[in-house]
Amino acid sequence: MKKKLVSAMLCAAMVATMVPGTAMAADDATADFAGEELSILVSTGWMDNRYDETIARFEETYDVTVDLQTIPADQYSDVLQSKLSTDSCADIFWIQSNPFAIGSVIVDPEKYCIDFTGAEWESKMPETRLSSCTFNDKLYGLQIWHNSPEYVMVYNKTLFEELGIEIPTTYAELLSACDKIAAEGITPWFLPGADGWQHQLAFFQIGGVYEEATPGLYEGLNNNTATFADNEKMLEVLGQFKELSDKGYFGEDWIGTDSSNMVNEFGDRACAMAMANSSYIKQLQEETGSDDEWGLFLLPLGDNDTFPTNPAGPTMFGYKGTEHEDLVKAFFDFVTTTESLQEILDNSPSYTNLDMNDDGIEQHWLPEEEEFMNSIDKTKMSTPVLQTGTKYTNDYWSNFGADLVSYCQGTMEANDVLKNMDTNRAEAAKVAKDEAWN
Amino acid sequence: MNKKRIYPSWFLIIPIALYAIFFLLPSALGVGYSFTDWNARSLGEVNFIGFENYKEIFTSDKDYLTGIGHTLMFTVVSNIIKLIPALLLAILLNEGMKAKGLYRTLLYLPSILPFVIIGLIFKSIFNYKTGLLNVTLEALHLGFLKQKWLSDLDVVWKSIFGVDAWRGIGYVMTIFIAGLSAIPKSYYEAAQIDGANFWQRLRHVTLPMLSGSIMINLVFGITYGLKVFDIVYVLTNGGPGHATEVLSTYSYQLYSTGQYGMSTALNTILLVITAIIGVFVVRQMSKQEVQQ
User: Fold this and answer.
1) Among A65, A323, B180, B187, fewest CB within 10 Å belongs to which?
2) Domain ranges of chain B
3) Longest CA–CA separation in chain A, Å
4) Residue ranges of the ABC transmembrane type-1 domain (chain B) (predicted)?
5) Cβ distance of A409 and B240 shorter than 8 Å
6) ipTM above 0.90?
7) What CA–CA distances, in Å, run from A74 to A64, A68, A305, A350, B264?
């Protein structure tokens, strides 16, 4: 009995000595980095102020300094490429990722990226986002982004009710709604063509409907066995777009109008709907002073009923050539804690949620978003939008937009718009030495 | 005596070195890269591909040739609409006009404004619905003159030329004024005694004596026209559609999509066209000067 007691006491003593030892070890782990500097290369708009508090806590916790190198968006790609090719990259760098971006932007992740496969935070990222962070089954990136409905139709619910218009679910219904709205002297659909990047969303955000019309289309477009040209559904959608343009339903001069006055147009009831993110409703509520209610519906061109799932988003990577690999790993661990994620969300006025598998996060979904999301069949959320679900398409966003304008102005045929996209994608594939195109 | 006035030739070393490092070398590298497949994904691996980029430019479905045509058209028109009014204004403001200094300053001011500011100002002025131009026309009961200034295919080039002239006339005028002030008054007095009217004085005295200023303005104007980018980019970005694309906007687009080799090939074409036209103009003007 005595022996048992002695051994139990000895065990307890051993455990007791280990406890401070462990604590010491933990302290040592943070102390290991003391005085080090962690550099982060990022484009404007990708971190903004939303990471400031988290970074400050990280600096305090590990007694390190974070050197945030924010580069203007239009120069970022060139700066990153030159830093990667000259082996002088920051410890952490960001790219605007999508399921093909690691291969096309970073080109050789084995050479440039820290392999995070097996990291605890991997399970925090939803499956759809993992596709933008992995390459050849290895995890390289961390994407912390929101999942608000992006570029769906935001509409004036009150105005629709007053005019007796139901939410359009087909193109015919959309056309009929536009007829009624235009008859009131209101622009049915505010489309800021002069921005150069918004109007083509009407074509690309409904990728699911093209895939449904031609099953296997995405796969075909990605292995060069299918083309945009001659695709009947795409031609149908382009035709519908031009019809709306010809009828003046995008406004008198949509090609020459930018989005700077869109809020006022909504506030003055000069327009009834527009493509926007769901968070735009918050902006309308705050800035227009209008009592009108706002809602969301799916873009009904081509009788679309699919949700614009978009796995793309700014994504951070650890630079393999860093001298602070453990500190980089510690940073990735740190920003994926529930506390950090909540902090990031709370410091992002334009986000209503974070798309992370973490029940501890208190999301700020808008009631309109919840209503909209609940109305969508979950099976209609599986196909990503065309621009990020197919290779090289997003690279020619502006060119397609210009072609679309030319088509609406009658200087180009619909099928030529699609053919140009095929030509451009083939050029990009050639540059990338994509075997499917060679 | 003369020897004292001639500086030793080693004085040229620094300027020549600076010129070589910051102009000749980058230009030569640019030409060299136009024969390679250099792109955003090459990450240091650049391969020589001969004339492939040039072949692509002249045979591609893309409208690079229209871009070249637009560039040449811009060069011709922008020079005409700036040179003639600028010359007339220079003559007007070279005479003993009241407050001519103020007018000269006012006319010169737009040429020192950055293109970005000009773009912002005129995009706002040209806005179809809320722009100052259309609103003023409406207020003056001239609503029938309202235009979609930057989105109508028949109007957009005129808008660009208008803004370009507004910006550039003062600069051209200043060079003319400098030339005019160097013409001896006695030439005009002699012509007047001979009974020459305004147009005869202009044709037989002013223009021949201004050939130096005309040449400077022409060479500057032509090189500016061939390299045109900013004014088009800030006003239309090559649009609506591709209606106002010029060589430089295509080159910019190619650079943006990471096709650096192709982009430098387009710039090399621009360099060759500019050099040919520049040399031709200088030769012609020099011949005329010799004849005079």
Assistant:
1) A323
2) 53-291
3) 99
4) 68-281
5) yes
6) no
7) 30, 18, 35, 22, 19
Domains of chain A: residue spans and CATH: 32-147+311-366 (3.40.190.10), 152-306+392-437 (3.40.190.10)
Query: Hey, which bits of A298-371 come out as E strands?
Result: 313-318
Q: Do A420 and B62 touch (CB under 8 A)?
A: yes
Q: Rounded to whole angstroms, how far apart are CA atoms A424 and A430?
A: 10
Q: Do A193 and B62 touch (CB under 8 A)?
A: no
Chain A residues interacting with chain B (CB cutoff of 8 angstroms): 77, 81, 84-85, 104, 107-108, 193-194, 196, 252-253, 255-258, 261, 395-396, 398-399, 402-403, 405-407, 409, 411-412, 419-420, 423-424, 427-428, 431-432
Beta bridge partners of A69: A41
Tell the residue number behind the tokens 């006022």, with chain if given.
A264
**What Rg do the C-alpha atoms of chain B give, in angstroms?**
23
User: What's the fold here for domain B53-291?
Assistant: MetI-like fold (1.10.3720)
In Å, how far is B59's CA from the nearest CA of chain A?
Answer: 13
Which amino acid would we find at residue B15?
Answer: P
* B16: amino acid identity, one letter: I
Residues of chain B in contact with residue A186, where contact means CB-CB under 8 angstroms, are: none
A·B CB contacts under 8 A? 86
Does the distance separating the beta carbons of B130 and A256 come in below 8 Å? no
What's the pLDDT at A17? Answer: 43
Could you check whether the bond before residue A349 is cis, i.e. omega within 30 degrees of 0?
Answer: no
Tokens for A410?
Answer: 């009658």
**pLDDT over threshold 60, residue B158:** yes
pLDDT in tens, B246-274: 999 999 888 877 888 999 999 999 989 98
pLDDT band at B283; cut points 50, 70, 90: confident
B184 Ramachandran zone, left/alpha/beta (phi>0; psi -120 to 50) = beta
